[in-house]
Amino acid sequence: MLWEHERVNKWRPTNRPKFSICCMNGKVQLPTIKKPPMLLEKLIKNQHPLSSHFMKYIRQYNNMFSFTSMGGRIDKTINNGNAPYIFRLNGENRHLIESLLPMEGQAPKFAQLYIFDSKDEIADRMAFAR
Fold first, then answer.
1. What's this model's pTM, rounded to 2 decimal places?
2. Which pLDDT belongs to residue 126?
């Protein structure tokens, strides 16, 4: 999806605008977005008993299933509950990643959750999300 002003020949009015910056004049066709799994859709649409918990910790859940996590100085003062959620980083943006094996005595995180062979793998993933 593009803005009208990103079309080719902006100065000419048209009912059928053409765009070239992302799709090579229509040669690239993207598939339609697939529906998320039913549970995820219900969690996001506030149709599940755990929706408020899920939305409160959505960044942690996303990070838990990523091999790296975004880090930086997060500005938590911008959201006051009156508008859509905004995620704003101040200063330098960075990726957080650990070694492939956890340090002695530490719980696995990031990619370690997938590589670390443990009978407590599910418990480790759930603990990381809290």
1. 0.41
2. 65
